[in-house]
Amino acid sequence: MRTKQTIAVLGATGKMGSAIAKSLSKGNYRILLFSRDNTKLGRLKRELRNAVPQADVVSVDCSYNACWEADVIIAAVPYSAEKEVADTIREVANQKIVISVANPVNNNGDALLTPLNTSAAEELQKLLPNSKVIKAFNTMFAADFNQPEIDGKQVDAFIAGNDDDALEIVRDLVQTAGFNPVIAGDLSLSRVLEHMQLLLIRLSIKHNYNRLAGWKILHH
Amino acid sequence: MYELFFKNMTEKVKLTRDQQQMIRQYLVPKKIRKNQYLLQEGDVAKYAAFVEKGALRAYSVDEKGTEHIIQFAFEGWTISDMYSYMTGEPATYNIDALEDSELVLLNKSAQEEILQRVPEYEEYIRLQLTGAFMSMQKRITSMLSLTLEERYIQLTQLYPSLVQRVPQRMIASYMGLTPETLSRVRRKIKERWE
Ligand SMILES: NC(=O)c1ccc[n+]([C@@H]2O[C@H](COP(=O)([O-])OP(=O)(O)OC[C@H]3O[C@@H](n4cnc5c(N)ncnc54)[C@H](OP(=O)(O)O)[C@@H]3O)[C@@H](O)[C@H]2O)c1
């Protein structure tokens, strides 16, 4: 696509938000950063512009306005904040792609907060019934964005959602970020994807992967 | 956010509150800043854009790199590369914002669904298309048979805020003239009124 897509990153100064914003600023995207912390946001913006001089990155001081301007919205916020975020952006996120990054992991990092018959992404879809919620960027660590190739292999990044056009647009985003996009299936597959990350977190702690680890499907 | 959109529609056809609510579910509210593109040549035009606030233009670029403005759109107008929107073929137009703007976007499959569900909307679209057809006929006739002065006057009647909001070189491009010729036309009209 030649026409520049506008991406709003909510929770932009967080570990995931900043990693995603940085990796996408290399692509043909206009990036709108939103954070409740203006000092951190200013620092992030300078950092991004130094790293990628041609980057089209601006900060927006209101998430409602950022999402009004956006074509794609990335909710890089904790699961616990999704309801508050959804309530703020619902009107302007109408019919837009909203990427759910959240893993609803408990504080001990040993279980998910969601029951087995749902997921953070499906809960977000219920909160935003007229948006196209897509699960993406949840099966890797923030540190992987600096190094999407581990042990010589490109990390797989799984995507789930119900709208084909939206899945294609998110596939391009994931590819721009340096990962190998794998469309897993409809949004209910988010349950599996969120559990995959729970496993990765637990293995990372157990084996001291230093949060530099990811999934790779081996196939012929 | 959708005020003008529904105002224009309900001036032409009767819609219940529920019908308006239903249509609303399909609409994409979109802000775009000055100089940004809504569509670039080569991409498929996924949306028709209704202008709530602001101004846009559609233009094509010839082999020599010259821009030809096809259409302006101010408040209450709809803009797209209709050929691309209807057929799914790559667009031959570029559409960009002349001012910071607020749009209401509607994609084709959403439009089809509304057409199925709201008969009054079909009536509205029919009126819209008839209007668009008549203005296209008017534009062709004026190109072929009016003097430059008459064409300029007709244009300022079609878009009353054009002269205040759009640079002269773009008006010239819309009329297929050089900026020099356009300023000669404007001078002549002024002399006549004085
Ligand atoms: N870290 C990872 O490796 C990783 C991997 C995969 C998925 N994830 C998921 O990504 C999400 C973000 O994780 P993180 O590690 O980046 O966390 P983080 O560093 O703590 O960042 C979270 C961000 O969310 C924002 N936030 C918190 N509450 C909010 C609210 N009520 N409204 C709006 N914004 C709010 C904060 O923004 P302010 O700047 O406004 O305070 C903060 O920047 C989580 O859902 C997590 O499960 C993380």
Q: If you had to describe this structure to a student in words, what would you say it looks like?
A:
- The complex is a heterodimer of chains A (220) and B (194).
- Chain A is α/β, with parallel strands linked by helices and 220 residues long.
- Chain A has a single domain (5-207), classed as Rossmann fold (3-Layer(aba) Sandwich), CATH 3.40.50.
- Chain A is built from seven helices and ten strands.
- Chain A has an eight-stranded mixed beta sheet with strand order 3-2-1-4-5-6-9-10, sandwiched between helices. In chain A, strands 7-8 form a two-stranded antiparallel ribbon.
- Chain A starts with a strand and ends in a 13-residue tail after the last helix.
- Chain B has a domain at 3-116: Jelly Rolls (Sandwich), CATH 2.60.120.10.
- Helix content of chain B is 51%, strand content 21%.
- Chain B has helices spanning 3-12, 17-24, 82-87, 108-117, 119-145, 148-158, 162-165, 168-175, 179-193; strands at 28-32, 37-39, 47-53, 56-61, 67-73, 78-79, 94-97, 101-107.
- A four-stranded antiparallel beta sheet of chain B has the order 1-8-3-6. A four-stranded antiparallel beta sheet of chain B has the order 2-7-4-5.
- In chain B, helix 4 (108-117) crosses helix 5 and helix 8 (168-175) packs across helix 9.
- In chain B, 26% of the residues are buried.
- The A-B interface holds A 1-4, 30, 65, 68-69, 71, 91-92, 94-96, 130 and B 1, 24-33, 36-43, 110.
- The complex binds NADP nicotinamide-adenine-dinucleotide phosphate.
H and E order of chain B = HHEEEEEEHEEHHHHHH
Percent of residues in β-strands of chain A: 15-25%
Main beta sheet of chain B: 4 strands, antiparallel
CATH architecture of one domain in chain B: Sandwich
Q: What's the domain count of chain A?
A: 1
Largest sheet data of chain A: 8 strands, mixed
- Oligomeric composition of the shown chains: heterodimer
* Unreliable stretches of chain A: none
Helix content of chain A: 25-40%
Radius of gyration of chain B: 18 Å
Number of strands of chain A: 10
Share of residues in strands of chain B: 15-25%
Secondary-structure arrangement, i.e. CATH architecture of chain A: 3-Layer(aba) Sandwich
Within CATH, the superfamily of one domain in chain B carries the name: Jelly Rolls
Question: What's the order of the H and E elements of chain A?
Answer: EHEHEHEHEHEEEEHEH
CATH topology of one domain in chain B: Jelly Rolls
The radius of gyration of chain A is 16 Å
Q: How many helical elements of chain B?
A: 9
How does the overall form of chain A come out from the CA principal axes?
Answer: globular
Sheet with most strands: strand arrangement of chain A: 3-2-1-4-5-6-9-10
CATH homologous superfamily of chain A?
Answer: NAD(P)-binding Rossmann-like Domain
